[in-house]
Amino acid sequence: MIERKKEMGRDRVSRLVSWGHWFAFFNGFLAMIVGVRYIETVGAPESWIGWSYLAISTLGHFSFLAFIVYLVVLFPITLLLPYSKILRGLGAFAATLGLCILLYDTLIYDDYGLHLSPFVFDIAWADINALLQGTSYIVTPLGIIILELTAANFLWKRIEKIRKSNYGPKVVIVIGLCFVSSHLIHIWADAADITEITRLDDAYPLSYPATARSFMESHGIEKSTIGQDASKLQPTLNYPIKPLQCSADTDINMLVIAIDGFRADLVDKETMPFLYTYGQANHEFKQHLSGGNMHASGMFSLLYGLQGSYITAEDLNYRPPVFTQELVKLGYSLARFAPEMENQVPQAIYQDFTPHLHSLSSGVADADIQSIDSFNQWQTQQDKPWFALINLQSPDSYDTPVGFLGIETVKPATPLKPAQKVLFNQYRQSLNFIDKQLQRLLERLPSSTFVMITGVSGKAFTSDNDNQRGNLSPANVHVPMIIHWPDMQYDKTVSYPSSHYGVVPTLMTQLLDCTNKATDYSAGRSILQPQSENWTYIGDNLVFGIYQEDEITVIDRHGKYRIYDRDYRKRLHNKKISAPELIQVMREGRRFYNH
Q: For labeling, which of 211, 334, 367, 569 is most exposed (least CB within 10 Å)?
């Protein structure tokens, strides 16, 4: 009798386990239907390779997620409380909760481009009214729970018949093959740069497709260039959102001098006497921020005018800034004078420029001298309007030429460590060297030339590149902005905040007579008037900061954030992130993507 009861108990558990597996498979199927909304957000594939991978990965991923939920939630209860009514009710409730969370995640992903996490949930909760409209958030869960209860009961009544059909092992094999195959295909696609596949990496929640990068790098294997034909890549950006309407009839020459590691607080009488006087005589912006603390993000914000989150967008590897595109259409000669550097990000940022690059073999300062000499020679040979970009980099590496006689050392205005004091005064020598080069350049330039002098980034006094990378303090992003407008009169000193994002809209409207709204091609507004937003995005797609009037929020790619006071000297541990501003930042970071 006891053995009979044990056998009946084991059979009941076995039936419940079978029911649980089929119930999980059913919910995996429902999750796939919900998952269609992710594809609507990222865009459907356009080739059979993309569709094949999508079908295999979708079936494998959502079935696996449903099975994991069953394994964690229902399976332990099956062993402890092997009663079908309890399990059917709990299963229906757990499945409804899971599907509702998945539906909510699709809304968040469509709006912010991020999947649900504790950090994202805090932000989305502040925007809950915009995300959940009408009564669907009440009707939908009710409809799902009814469907789940019906399915749970239907499967339980027919579980013996389903077990006898022996379909289970076949379904498991198919799902297992799909799951493994999707990862193997992704390894190949990642190695061969098949963007039709790799662009789907973040489409689904909790998706971590396998790659072979570490194996390839350890064996010295380079990634293939398969799929890199720009003409075959699927556009992912609406940039610009609308065709530009420009009617410029101008022959004004334009010069932009962008200096790496250029702090605004050291443009003073002692360190840079020429530029200090030049700034007072022209249009000077006292509260100007670069869009980044590194060369790549700073130049990206200056020339594209886009938020740094777009810096790795595939389109921009073959699509130059709209500003330089318009200059080319107008017949301008474009030239760039700079030290030699490694590959630029994005690759097309200087595509419209004729490069005049100089070796760093004799030092950065010597390369800067050669850049200015090369420009002076080039501009005298031009017979049509020109736009020149001179990038000077000496201050970023504290460099001066051999034999340079600089200025006396001074005591820093703020307390510094001994090593920082050495860097501070060496930095001043480098700025003084640049000041003399600017004087040599600008004094021989016709006054009818439009001139802009600014910093690519600021400079924190450290020789640690990792520290520089994550440092989003004002010292690293507050840069000079001085503009000489030929035949135009503006208030000489501007005290309201401005940023690199407003440079392209300013030049497009003032010099090229473009009538489009700045939002069609930029994240900024003209710097000739105060911006309406009370925040500025600083950084790239990995680490970024949100500058506000009285605080700075720094966020990494994992969603961890730190809040500092406006001087970046005190971390505000008890302060929570400002949700409205972050929501605006996240939407701006998605605005130019196709939907």
A: 569
